[in-house]
Structure prediction request, 303 residues.
Amino acid sequence: MTYIMKITRDNTVFRVYKSLNASGEEIARKLGISRTAVWKAIEKLREWNYVIESRKGVGYTIISKPDISPFEVADVAFKNLKELVEEVWYYTEVDSTNQRAREYGKPNTLFFAEKQTLGRGRMGRKWFSERGGLYFSLTLKPRLSIEDIPKLTLTTGLAVAKSIPNAKVKWPNDVLINGKKVCGILCELIGEVEQPIVVVGIGINVKNPIPKELEDKATNLSLNLIDVFDYVTKNLYRYYSKLFIGKWKDIRREYIENCETIGKFVKVKTLSKVYEGLAKGIDDDGALIINRERVYAGECFYI
Ligand code: BT5
Prediction:
C-alpha cells in the first residue's frame, strides 16, 4: 500500500505529536481540542507505526517509533527551513518528488518520498531511488533574476556538501565522497519566466542499496536518514538565506574551497557545444571558467 500525507503547521495529528509526554487532558487543553480529537490523533500516529502508551504521571509516551515518518520529516522541515516551507507532502512511494512538485506548482512546498519508482536525473537519466535513501524536492520562489538561478543550483550543492563528512562538490552540483557520487541535485524551473518557481530536487544515498552497475561510481552514508535530512535542511536554509540577502561573493568563495573540479582538466558537454580544458575557477556569475570560456551548465567529465 502507498500512503500519502499532507502536513501543515496547524495539522491536528502533527500538533498532538509535538505535544506528547502529556496526558490526553493536558494535550486537549493546550491545543484547544477535544479529548476525542487527541485520541483520534494518537490512533493515527499508531497507524504510522508509533508505539504509544499512556503512562501514569507522564501521559502519552512514545515507546518506539519508525525510522522515518511524515511527522518527523515535517518537524525537521518546519524547524530548519522556517518560512521556506509551508506544506509537507509525504509519500511512502511516489513516481518522482520533482514530478509531484511540478504538477502541484506552488512555492514553499516540500515533497518527500521513502522510495521513488521513476526518480530522475538531468536529461531524462534515471536516479535509483530504493527505500532507505533520502529523496525530496523543495519549491521556492526566490527573489532572484533568471540569470541568477545557476547560483541557486551551486548554492544547493555547496549546502549538501557541507552537510556530509568528507564530501566535495563536482561542478555544477554533484556531491562526491572520494570520487564517488553520494548525492545528485536536479533543479528545474516552472511557472512564468519573470517570476519562476524553482524545484530543487535532492537525492542522497543513505541506507538504500546501490545497484551493481553503479558500484564503482556511487557510494552511500552510514548515518540515520532523519539526521541527514536535519543537517541538509539546516545548511540549505543557512546558504539560501545568504544568497537571498546578496552574499553570493561569500558563497562563491566557499564553493571554490569545496569544489574538486577546479584545477582539473575537464570536458563539459552542453546542448550546443563541448568545452575542453583546464577548469580555472568560478566567475562572479557562477559560470565555470574553462581556459578563457565560461559555461553555466552542462555535464562535466574529468579527462
Ligand atoms: C542527478 O542527475 O544527479 C540528479 C539526481 C536528482 C535526484 C533527485 S531525488 C529527488 C528528486 N526527484 C527526482 O525524480 N529527482 C530528484 P544526473 O547528473 O543526470 O545523474 C544521473 C546519473 O547518476 C545516472 O545516469 C547514473 O549514472 C547516476 N546515478 C543514478 N542513480 C544514482 C544513485 N542513486 N547514486 C549515485 N549515482 C546515481
